[in-house]
């Protein structure tokens, strides 16, 4: 897996960053391979060189998901069309296709389910308050409900409970 540092005209920068731009036509002079990383730097002749380290420090990374050799398909010989996708930080593959984020997502779903259960129990305790006129018992149920609600908040905030 190679990283190709590429200049991109600033007029395309915005659509690249927000994910609208998913393909590039490039001169095929770098032995591009599916799985290689494209590291784009916004650059214009007027704006100065990024690679020289002047005004642009930001870059945007994409992984190549597909390559068409344009010479075979009526486009100028020597060019290629690269399809690209956002890069996963873990596997460096296509983050829209890989499953790296699944375990973390599964944990979040479990915490949400647990929080939902705590909130339901809190509601039950609140429901019991009205059936108990003795102050101590009513206060006890309010305290229990508060405890459950606080636990639910911690679960949803991702804190230890
Ligand atoms: Zn991944």
Quick overview of this protein structure:
With 161 residues, this protein is an alpha+beta fold.
Account of the protein in words:
With 161 residues, this protein is an alpha+beta fold. It folds into two domains: 3-86, Hypothetical protein (Archaeosine Trna-guanine Transglycosylase, Chain: A, domain 4), CATH 2.30.130.30; 101-156. Helix content is 37%, strand content 22%. It has helices spanning 10-17, 102-129, 135-157; strands at 3-8, 23-27, 37-42, 60-69, 79-86. α2 packs antiparallel against α3 (135-157). It starts with a strand and ends with a helix. 11% of the residues are buried. The model is unreliable at 50-55 (pLDDT under 50). The structure holds zinc ion.
Annotated CATH architecture of the largest domain? Roll
Helices, by number, come to 3
CATH topology of the largest domain, by name, is: Archaeosine Trna-guanine Transglycosylase, Chain: A, domain 4
Strand content: 15-25%
The total beta strand count reads: 5
Radius of gyration: 27 Å
Biggest sheet features:
5 strands, mixed
Q: Characterize the overall form.
A: rod-shaped
CATH top level label of the largest domain:
Mainly Beta
Bound ligand species: zinc ion
Instruction: Briefly note the structural class of the backbone.
Output: alpha+beta
DSSP helix fraction: 25-40%
H-E string:
EHEEEEHH
- Domains counted in the coordinates: how many? 2
Please give the alpha-carbon distance between the first and last residues: 42 Å
Stretches where pLDDT is under 50 for at least 5 consecutive residues are: 50-55
CATH superfamily of the largest domain: Hypothetical protein
Mean pLDDT: 89
């Amino acid at each position: 897996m190679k990283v190709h540092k590429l200049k991109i005209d600033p007029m395309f920068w915005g659509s690249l960053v927000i994910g609208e731009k998913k393909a590039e036509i490039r001169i095929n002079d770098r032995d591009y391979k599916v799985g290689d990383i494209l590291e784009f730097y916004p650059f214009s002749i007027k704006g100065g060189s990024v690679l020289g380290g002047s005004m642009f420090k930001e870059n945007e990374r994409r992984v190549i998901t597909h390559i068409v050799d344009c010479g075979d398909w009526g486009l100028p010989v020597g060019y290629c069309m690269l399809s690209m996708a956002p890069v996963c930080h873990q596997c460096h593959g296509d983050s829209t296709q890989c499953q790296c984020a699944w375990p973390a997502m599964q944990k979040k779903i479990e915490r949400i389910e647990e929080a939902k259960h705590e909130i339901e129990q809190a509601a039950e305790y609140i429901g019991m308050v009205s059936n108990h006129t003795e102050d101590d018992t009513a206060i006890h149920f309010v305290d229990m409900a508060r405890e459950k609600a606080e636990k639910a908040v911690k679960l949803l905030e991702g804190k230890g409970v």
